[in-house]
Fold this sequence. Notes:
Largest sheet: 8 strands, mixed
Mean pLDDT: 95
Strand order of the largest sheet: 3-2-1-4-7-6-8-5
Number of strands: 8
Number of helices: 10
CATH class: Alpha Beta
CATH architecture: Alpha-Beta Complex
Amino acid sequence: MxxxxxxxxxxxxxxxxxxxxxxxxxxxxxxxxxxxxxxIIVVDGGSTDGTRERAAALGATVVEAxxxxxTQLSAGARxxxxxxxxFLHADTTLEPFWSTTVSSFMRARGNVLKxxxxxxxxxxxxxxxxxxxxxxxWRARKLGLPYGDQGLLMSRTMYDSLVGYLDLPIMEDVDMVxxxxxxxxxxxxxxxxxxxxxxxxxxxxxxxxxxxxxxxLYFLGVPPRRLTRLYG
Length: 232
């Protein structure tokens, strides 16, 4: 539409019954509006808790897509009109002043064919949570395999060159960062804090062990759709 300011950053958030956390997640994004034109796109996979209504009330564009993070992220990217896209989970909150770090990354010309992620943290003060954080951040830095919980920022140019997210029910984040390549991944000096609810529910030992087992099976060639049954 003529006269509209071009969008600098599109934030894509896949959701499934995420209404409780959505206000905090989207609220933390508002600071970026002071420095750039941004759009927030919530891609819902069939929520029954009013997620879509809450997202719309918070000013997000709401898109519906078949359930599955890969499918939902792909649908959000198709809707996005920004020069840069930030993929973010619905239970992840960015720390204050994150936008300064992201703006610096976006302005650097050499980063148009690189991607960035945030440092991982959990909203739990326990020692068990700290151990998970150390393991997760080690995996991202040493193996080039950040979790989707750490967010993923890249230019539209790079996203299109990678043919985007694939229609995968699980491991969509691993598939994407493997195609990006470790040498093209940069850790941003800002933290993304994710809800520890899943770890408290499944166990701080069991969940990481299960995740590592699934990752190993994926690298051994087990199809993601078979892994979904083990993931639960």
